Amino acid sequence: MSSDIDLEKAFDIICDKSCDRWEDIAQKLSPGNQTRIASLKQEYRDNLRQQCYNYLTRVWWEEQGDEASVQELCRVLGELRLNRTKSLVEKVCNISPAKISKEELEPQSSLTQEEVTHLSDRIRTLETKLSEKDNTIVKRLVYSTINLKLPSDTKNPWIEDIAVDEAGDVFVTDHDNNCVKCFDDKGQNKWITHSRNLNKPPHNVSLVNKKFIAVTKESSHFLDILRTNDGVKVKEVEHEPCLQPCLTICSDTVVISDAFTRKVHIYKMFNYNLTKVHTISPLMAKPPIWLPHHVHVTSDQKLLVSDWATETVQAFTLQGDHIFTYGADKQGRRQLSYPYGVCSDPANNILVADNMNNRIVLLTPDGQFVKDLPTKEDVLDEPLALTVAHGQLYVSAQSSIHIFQ
Questions:
Q1: Pair type for strands 400-404 and 144-147
Q2: Are 77 and 89 in contact (CB under 8 A)?
Q3: What value does the mean pLDDT take over residues 200-206?
Q4: Is residue 27's pLDDT more than 60?
Q5: Higher local confidence (pLDDT), 314 or 106
Q6: Better pLDDT: 206 or 114
Q7: How far, in Å, CA of 356 to CA of 138, rounded?
Q8: Is the pLDDT of residue 44 over 80?
Q9: Radius of gyration over every alpha carbon of the chain, rounded to an integer in angstroms
């Protein structure tokens, strides 16, 4: 049995991501309801999303009553190999993912020569357009990738967070493979630290200094300090207990949010000890924080919080005062769909991984829309984490990190 809130979240994701497969989903969930399925197709003839939503709420949920569960939805999504939708539902509803079959792990086919040619032409066109007039971090697209899938992985990588150090080494937390990975600036894997060495699955990662990174862990109240050169854990730092702790470190300021309590905790760190200086409670935000997913502190000391449930990015002072909200108006291009990672460039422009809209949104420092940066047309599909380093934008999507300059 699942809560009404979790079911509604799952329904929204399925309708947003896989409404074109709703009849297949219906056949799996309730094979004996052909008459009601046909009725919904007639009632909402030209609207697949409405067909999908009304099937899930008016047919399946009513049939199942208190027995309706997100787990059952995930089971059906897995059988239909709608794995990305299934992963999103599991993530938002905090469902432990089921084991994926060998068939589900089969890699996608490689690009044809025609697709490669089209992609190259598209990149050249975008390079020309972006280099003509653009003062933002992404001045032109120099497209390169780091493949994050390793032979030891049992699942396709799901990258919760990215950090890049001065040497160009890239650190990622891979949720689905329960590990922290490090790659050099040429994309070669340097080391991997599994959750068995951390006691809990890793969640977010942030640079502490040249020698160390910090990693939060799910359902934990400890921050692990790892060496950057080999991934060995050298220290644990205690913080407020968190179910899904998101992390950012800016100088001596440490911010940790939790999707379960919906709170954002602000600490000062001295000699690897944390002292809490403020907590942003859900009702201090506009709208109230519901599912804080990523946090980031800009160089001008704004605290940014992305929220999956309200589909907004909010800015606060480090004292907890609300500055602005982006995305709440739900109008056209300003609408976000499951915003994930958030970061800023050296000029304090804000970049948001707009996951379901397959794009990166660029905002001014005060939260005004500027434009879309890389999109699905630029081979950016369902972006997750992102960061800016060395004049480049690093974005995780699917099983790779895409680098834009």
A1: antiparallel
A2: yes
A3: 93
A4: yes
A5: 314
A6: 206
A7: 21
A8: yes
A9: 21
Sign, Cα dihedral of 217, 220, 226, 230: negative
Residue 309 zone, left/alpha/beta (φ > 0; ψ -120 to 50; rest)? alpha
Residue 181: count of CB within 10 angstroms of its CB: 26
Would you tell me how many other CB atoms lie within 10 Å of the CB of residue 21?
Answer: 17
pLDDT band at residue 121, thresholds of 50, 70 and 90? low
CB contact at 8 A, 26 and 59: yes
Backbone phi and psi for residue 13, each to the nearest 5 degrees, phi listed first: -65, -45
Rounded mean pLDDT, 119-130: 53
**Closest among 133, 173, 168 to 294, alpha carbons compared:** 173
Supply φ then ψ for residue 144, to 5 degrees.
Answer: -145, 165
The DSSP call for residue 88 is H
**What are 163's two structure tokens?**
């950090």
Residue in this structure with the two tokens 């379901």, named with its chain if needed: 356
Give tens-digit pLDDT for 325-353: 998 775 555 688 889 999 999 999 999 99
Residue listed under structure tokens 């690897």: 272
- The whole-number pLDDT of residue 109 equals 40
- Do you find a cis peptide bond into 365, omega within 30 degrees of 0? no
Residue 211: helix, strand or coil by DSSP?
coil
Is pLDDT above 50 for 281?
A: yes
**Per-residue tokens: 385:** 């984490």
User: Got the DSSP string for 112-153?
Assistant: PHHHHHHHHHHHHHHHHHHHHS--SS--S---EEEE---TT-
* DSSP string for 152-205: T-SS---EEEEEE-TT--EEEEETTTTEEEEE-TTS-EEEEEEHHHHSS-EEEE
> 75 CB contacts (<8 Å, ≥6 apart)?
98
- Tell me how far CA of residue 222 lies from CA of 120, 200, 258, in angstroms: 45, 10, 13
Distance in Å from the first CA to the final CA of the chain = 47
DSSP state letters, 363-398: E-TTS-EEEEEEEGGGT--SEEEEEEETTEEEEEET
The model's pLDDT over 374-383, given as tens digits with 9 standing for 90+, comes to 776 666 788 9
Give the pair of three-digit tokens for residue 70.
């997100």
Average pLDDT score over the chain: 85
108, containing H or E segment = none
Structure tokens at 264: 């954002």
Give CA–CA dist 294/151, Å, rounded: 29
**DSSP readout, 308-358?**
TTTTEEEEEETTS-EEEEESTT--GGG--SSEEEEEE-TT--EEEEEGGGT
